[in-house]
Amino acid sequence: MLIFRWLAMLFALGIIASFGLFIATGQQRYKRIGLLCLKWVVLAGLGFFAVLILERIA
């Protein structure tokens, strides 16, 4: 659990930094990187919570 918390924190900081760089520079690649990371973090979170729910049911 601790590993997942640290990974989530690191990804959140990376996404914030990416969008911050997009705001500061206006370069679209930082926005694209931020959205790509956000998409994968949301999918990983959904998978993580799906496993927790399935563990609780079984």
What do these coordinates show?
The chain is mainly α. The chain has one domain (2-57). Helix content is 93%, strand content 0%. The protein is built from two helices and no strands. The protein is elongated, with a radius of gyration of 14 Å. The model has no long low-confidence stretch (mean pLDDT 93).
In short:
It contains 2 helices and no strands.
Question: What's the arrangement of secondary structure elements?
Answer:
Layout: H1 2-25, H2 28-57
Helix pairs in contact: 1-2
Question: What attributes does this structure have?
Answer:
58 residues; mainly alpha; 2 helices; 93% helix
What is the end-to-end distance? Answer: 20 Å
pLDDT below 50 for ≥5 consecutive residues: which ranges? Answer: none
Summing up helix and strand content along with how strands pair, one would put the structural category as mainly alpha
Radius of gyration: 14 Å
Biggest β-sheet, characterized? none
Query: Helical percent range?
Result: over 70%
Shape: elongated
Question: Count of helices?
Answer: 2
Q: What's the domain count?
A: 1
Strand content bin: under 5%
Along the chain, the helix and strand elements come as HH
Mean pLDDT: 93
Total beta-strand segments: 0
